[in-house]
Description:
4-stranded mixed β-sheet, 4 strands
Amino acid sequence: MHAASREALEVALQRVNEIIDGSANPIPVAAQTGTELFEVVDFLDADRGLRVAAADSSATAEQRSGLVRTVFEGKVSPEALTAVADAAAQVWSNPREMRAGLVRMGRHALLRSAAAQGQLPQVEEELFRLGRTLDAQPQLVQLLTDKNSTSAAKRDLLAKVLYGKVTAVTEALALQAVGRPDKNPVDDLASLAELAAGQNDRTVARVIAATALTDAQEQTLREKLNRIYGREMSIQTEVDPSLLGGLVIRVGDEIIDGSLANKFAQLRRDLA
């Protein structure tokens, strides 16, 4: 995002927090607000003229906010309407970034709902595992990214895959990501898992091991990474036997490759 949009998003997310925190029933309000923000984005996606007008910086904040209120009054809850109208009152760099901001607001609200229910770690893990599952099923990913298929059809397909297997928040987030992906859905789900971790001020460490880590090994690794990076870490693990042994750890753009496969490769290079 450009600087103006980043500032607008910061204000909009704070407004979402105020709406949720000011409610007598924060869990259902957060869940409904998040879901309805996604519905607003769907509506804007289908109406380019409205999408452009809602982010038109040549109009006043009152005009943009008033337009949004006129269009969505009675179609969404008062809380979601306030969130969207206040977002429209901000100055966004372009309509595309305002749309991305609304998606981010929806995700934030749903994760607030999960946090209030004590489900945030579970949602994070489910999103990560779903991403890994899709990564291992290229045919399913092809169906979910088929440009000739409608968003509704893609969401219906994924909903059948997820039915009864994940929390309602995970399902809502995943359906939004797949139905309207900003990038490859596998990457988008990974971003969502990191967003869930960030909701609790944690940083994600992606760990690939030759064999599955025990709970004790994972806890020891977490404590070591906490000390190294000076902050709380969230461990997301997967197994890759081709590593032969050891671990590959990725934190942001930093990669620590302590696998046997890498050591053997280094040895071969040294001997060449």
